[in-house]
Design a protein that fits this description.
Blueprint lengths: L1 E4 L4 H17 L6 E8 L1 H12 L7 E5 L25 E9 H10 L4 H16 L7 H17 L7 E10 L5 H9 L17 E7 L2 E7 L9 H15 L3 E7 L4 H11 L5 E7 L6 H14 L4 E4 L8 H11 L2 E2 L16 H16 L9 E8 L5 E9 L2 H8 L4 H18 L3 E9 L7 H6 L7
Helix pairs in contact: 1-4, 3-4, 4-5, 11-13
């Protein structure tokens, strides 16, 4: 039984008794044993640590076993005959001290209830009394396994799930879309060496067994000229206003301090900020190092991390860093089903693939006026038949997109088809039609009709 010494809350007490009963059942403790459970404050536990362990520290729990047990060894009262209380024949097997303030603080830190924290600490102490320890890895594993077994049986788990939104911002061409693709492990956002590749926010969803991160790729900052550009700014505003973390991406090959200061001015958010120096695979260390030192002095971000989105360098470190700042849940929390990796549907992804190939194949000035709309998607035909309109702004552009004897559109079409076939894992027959819609980037109706999001 548990002898409570101190002012325990009744609900917590009831749960601590449940923990004791389960340990007693699993480890076959005799009925006539007592554990003293003391509730102390920081000052008291510090004093105990000092006098009994010569450690000048506040700890969460302290345990003093009165029996000498090894893991797996059954407690036999006859081995302790002389220590039984003559009045009631009970054996006190140990004293456990829990520090109230530490338990409350830790509950907050782990984002679970104080009730649960008390259960963990008591169980931990109880297992120590029963011979469990964590002095080496093997022992620690045994102890943890037993701890989990008991907590699971009582449905008092210490599981913590991380979930939240992470928005990627930066100048056009900084590598935002490359990064989201790398982190998600799928080609969710199109990438090109041309500026203004991304037109609207795209979500890419990272999942592991205990985490879901919804990354939001945004259109890059650049000089705004058209209504489409204005909409792009609104998209960035929306995505940075309502997110847990903002990843600020700057190019390692540009002056770092300058890039950071410019970017920082544009972002208004209460979210945590991680500054990422991208494309370090291309940058020279000698040039980078002094700038990084300078940057770390002035940057008002929570973290700074050099990465290569293209090569994946430090992307695992980034995921861990993000997890640190995401809210914790003690139940499995996901905004999207575990098998979804983007919020875009197949038609939208196909249209974007065609635009990506157009960006790759065409010279500078034309691509910005290109938009692709999938008009028909015959899923049940073999091969899958896809019809898409590729819009541009001028007849002269149309001629260039078609190319001599249709060579250019053929090239765009072939490259697109190969990528689409990979995406849909099926043979595809792609029919592209080039159309002209003059000045569509300043025509709000056309922007809407082309499937781009329009905000007030
Ligand atoms: N060497 C190198 N190139 C990169 C890296 N990340 C991105 N790039 C290249 O930079 C170019 C732009 O990449 P994107 O991912 O499209 O850039 P973005 O920031 O999404 O650009 P916008 O959508 O226009 O805002 C592409 O040619 C990428 O291959 C990197 O880590 N290293
Ligand atoms: Mg992009």
């Amino acid at each position: 039984m548990v002898e409570f010494l101190g002012n325990f809350n009744e609900e917590i007490k009831a749960n601590l008794v449940r923990v004791y009963n389960e340990v007693s059942r699993v480890l076959s403790l005799p009925k006539s044993v007592i554990v003293n459970l003391n509730l102390v404050n920081e000052k008291q536990i510090k004093q105990l640590n000092k006098t009994t362990r010569n450690i000048d520290k506040v700890t969460d729990v302290l345990t003093y076993p009165y029996v000498n047990l090894k893991v797996g060894q059954k407690l036999k009262l006859k081995d302790y005959a002389f220590e039984l209380d003559p009045a009631n024949k009970m054996l006190t097997i140990g004293d456990i001290y829990i520090c109230n303030e530490r338990a409350i603080a830790q509950a907050k830190e782990y984002n679970h209830t104080v009730n649960r924290e008390f259960c963990f600490l008591f169980l931990h102490g109880l297992l120590h009394i029963c011979g469990y320890d964590h002095l080496n890895d093997a022992d620690a594993k045994l102890m943890e396994a037993m701890q989990n077994k008991i907590l699971n049986a009582l449905n008092i788990t210490r599981n913590s799930y991380k979930c939240g939104f992470v928005t990627i911002v930066g100048d056009t061409n900084a590598g935002k879309s490359t990064l989201i693709n790398q982190l998600v492990g799928e080609h969710v956002a199109i990438v090109s060496p041309k500026s203004q590749t991304t037109r609207e926010n795209i979500k890419g969803i990272y999942n592991d067994s205990t985490t879901q991160i919804v990354f939001v790729d945004t259109p890059g900052y650049h000089k705004r000229k058209t209504l489409v550009d204005e909409q792009m700014d609104k998209q960035i505003e929306e995505a940075t206003a309502d997110t847990e973390i903002v990843l600020m991406l700057i190019d390692a090959n540009k002056p770092l301090v300058d890039s950071y200061l410019k970017l920082d001015k544009k972002i208004s958010t209460n979210a945590k900020k991680i500054l990422l120096i991208n494309k370090i695979d291309e940058a020279s260390y000698q040039k980078l190092y002094p700038q990084l030192a300078e940057l770390s002095k002035i940057a008002k971000t929570d973290e700074i991390l050099p990465i290569s989105a293209l090569k994946g360098k430090n992307c695992d470190v980034l995921i861990d860093m993000i997890k640190k700042y995401l809210p914790t849940y003690d139940y499995e929390m996901r905004y999207y089903p575990i098998d979804e990796y983007t919020d875009k549907n197949l038609r939208q992804m196909v249209a974007e693939i065609v635009r990506e190939k157009a960006l790759l194949c065409l010279d500078d000035e034309i691509p910005h006026g290109v938009q692709v709309v999938v008009t028909d998607y015959k899923e049940n035909s073999t091969p899958i038949e896809i019809y898409a309109d590729l819009y541009c702004e001028k007849e002269s552009h149309k001629a260039i997109i078609l190319g001599k004897a249709g060579e250019m559109i053929k090239k765009i079409s072939t490259l697109s088809r190969i990528s689409i076939e990979k995406l849909v894992q099926n043979k595809v027959n792609l029919q592209l039609y080039v159309k002209v819609k003059p000045n569509w980037r300043n025509d709000i109706k056309a922007i809407e009709n082309f499937g781009l999001k329009v905000s007030e």
